[in-house]
């Protein structure tokens, strides 16, 4: 399973109006660390399908959202809940570190 993509067009419905927590992975195709963290996020999503939704946002295709959420380096992950950013995670991390960062949502 791979994380579903979101975009400017679907952002409001996918992220801001979502029922539970949504982790958005801000990434780009040319970013090596982004490609490294993607399968880890897929694992976390498949192990916690009822607790968190993980979406990907290509910053090259959606520069307005990258600017709005002050994405200055990637990979960057933000957890949204109730339309607000609750947590920001910067950089590729191993699974156990990401799970610690997400403990409040998947614990």
TrEMBL record:
Residues 1-107 form the Thioredoxin domain. Disulfide bonds join 31-34. GO terms for biological process: cell redox homeostasis. It holds the Pfam family Thioredoxin. GO terms for molecular function: protein-disulfide reductase activity. Keywords: Disulfide bond, Electron transport, Redox-active center, Transport. NCBIfam families: thioredoxin. Belongs to the thioredoxin family. This is Thioredoxin. The gene is trxA.
